[in-house]
Design goal:
The chain is an alpha/beta fold. It has 16 helices and 18 strands.
Length: 495
């Protein structure tokens, strides 16, 4: 029996995003069409239609993503639409939801980060289509539908969004497994049950009562509701009876937006942390220069030279932080471009190693490089500048956090379909509680060993982003006083 592939439309003005989505989604068994802007996307949708999912970029020339969502929703009420954007905020997410979007996917994203939302969206669409079919076949009263709900329950059982249905008598007649977990008091509630049984959730009760009233017009209303420490966007819509002006009840969908709220908080913390990290080196530079200019540093030329050298180190740290911030911001806003070409990764690793030789000699650290495997088996499709930044950062960190007369070993080798680059040191190591945080923005381990080591806390963040943009991954193994091993895996390129 032939099963029709779910059809997906990708609309994005970045060719890399379009083709990347198309290739990965087709490998997952989907039928994919692409369009380069909003007008082309709308034309393709009108000509081919019957799409299960549409991935739509928010910022496009001509017709933007929100306008395209509105126009597609007018053509098809059942298509599931995702906003793919680097500008994701709570406001844009709410606005997109109001216009008919199912959710958003933040750029840059890996294939795994789009597969699960699309799968959930198709599940949601199947639920909507099944509900329409049931509505046509059965009586209009939701209580009667609830008694026949076994088929629809099969579809909604695995949905991650909570679904709650009430009838015109303010009785809960349907809930899915997610709603059981989300809504306190709903887990063991026998159905049908009075809505007043959810006595501790006055805001939700009032919200549903408001929507299920006889004079409420068709539409969707949304409201943020806090349940414990989790924040949900609750979208409620009345269920209208055919040929009758009044509603037969209401359907509520609970979507977890806690991470979106955390994003807003993180943005505020980001600004505060940047100010702190900039203020500290500037304060040191200003202090040394004031000492020299005021004459309080004395006439000792060697002492003044040391002050200027320390100021220069702080200035370089500040410049590095600005450079890393610019790269990080460019990647998060979608304004960062990489040029990927076939590249011998061992060549780039050698250049990065050579650039760190002077620092290694200053600390009498034995810095070695080894390349294993036959020649030509370390070719990846990558941006040379980005890869140099990744490996120079890892090697520089290994040298900084390794005591004098220590060892840093860099190795390039094959690992199946990947090229594996390992940077190993016998330095101070990382505490177990800090390993999961070292790739976070501005995170730096604070202890007696790192107090005098300059750094921005952004280098590993940028490195991980670069590796992710090349469909690779970076891992770390470490323990206090036992050194660290950073490993980068990059897909091997074959012509």
């Amino acid at each position: 029996m032939n099963v029709e592939k779910p059809r997906i439309l990708v609309v994005d003005d970045e060719s890399g995003i379009r083709e990347g989505c198309r290739i990965n989604l087709e490998m997952e068994g989907y039928d994919v069409d692409v369009a380069e802007d909003g007008f082309a996307g709308l034309k393709t949708f009108k000509e081919r239609g019957n799409y299960a999912v549409a991935l739509i970029d928010l910022k496009m020339p001509g017709m933007d993503g929100l306008e395209l969502i509105e126009k597609i929703r007018e053509l098809d009420q059942d298509v599931v639409m995702f906003v793919i954007t680097a500008y994701a905020t709570l406001d844009t997410a709410v606005e997109a939801t109001k216009k008919g979007a199912y959710g958003y996917i933040a750029k840059p994203f890996s294939p795994d980060e789009i597969f699960l939302p699309i799968k959930r969206g198709i599940e949601s669409r199947n639920l909507a289509l099944e509900t329409k079919r049931l509505r046509q076949e059965r009586e209009n009263r939701l209580l009667e539908v609830a008694f026949e709900r076994s088929k629809s329950n099969t579809i909604i059982r695995c949905m991650t969004d909570g679904v709650l249905v009430i009838n015109r008598d303010k009785q809960i007649v349907l809930r899915n497994e997610a709603a059981r977990r989300i809504i306190p008091g709903c887990e063991n509630l026998p159905l049908p049950a009075s809505l007043s049984a959810l006595a501790d959730l006055h805001e939700i009760i009032d919200f549903l009562n408001e929507t299920a009233t006889a004079d409420f017009k068709p539409g969707i209303i949304s409201r943020e509701v806090a349940i414990g420490e989790t924040i949900f966007m609750v979208n409620v819509s009345p269920v209208m009876e055919q040929g009758v002006a009044s509603s037969a009840g209401a359907v509520a969908v609970f979507r977890d937006i806690t991470e979106l709220k955390k994003l807003e908080t993180a943005k505020s913390m980001f600004v505060s942390m940047v100010a702190h990290e900039v203020k500290r080196p500037l304060g040191v530079i200003e202090g040394y220069l004031n000492l020299i200019l005021s004459g309080r540093a004395g006439e000792d030329g060697q002492k003044q030279k040391e002050m200027l050298e320390r100021s220069l180190i702080r200035a370089r740290t500040l410049r590095q932080m600005v450079s890393e911030l610019m790269n990080l911001t460019a990647m998060e806003t979608g304004n960062f471009a990489i040029k990927r070409n076939p590249l011998n990764i061992s060549t780039v690793v050698k250049e990065a190693t050579d650039s760190c030789l002077d620092k290694a000699k200053e600390k009498e650290i034995d810095l070695s490089l080894s390349v294993e495997g036959p020649g030509g088996q370390d070719v990846v499709l990558a941006d040379k500048s980005a890869m140099f930044s990744v490996f120079a950062n890892l090697i520089d960190n290994a040298i900084k956090y390794t005591p004098e007369r220590g060892h840093v070993e860099v190795r390039v080798e094959n690992a199946g379909n990947y090229v594996k680059v390992t940077v190993r040191d016998d330095g101070i190591g990382i505490d177990a509680g800090e390993k999961d945080k070292i790739f976070d923005e501005f995170f730096r381990a604070r202890n007696k060993y790192t107090a005098r080591i300059p750094g921005t806390g952004l280098g590993l963040t940028v490195a991980k982003r670069f590796v992710g943009l090349h469909q690779g991954k970076i891992t770390v193994e470490s323990a206090p006083a036992q050194g660290s091993v950073f490993t980068v895996f990059l897909p091997m390129w074959e012509e």
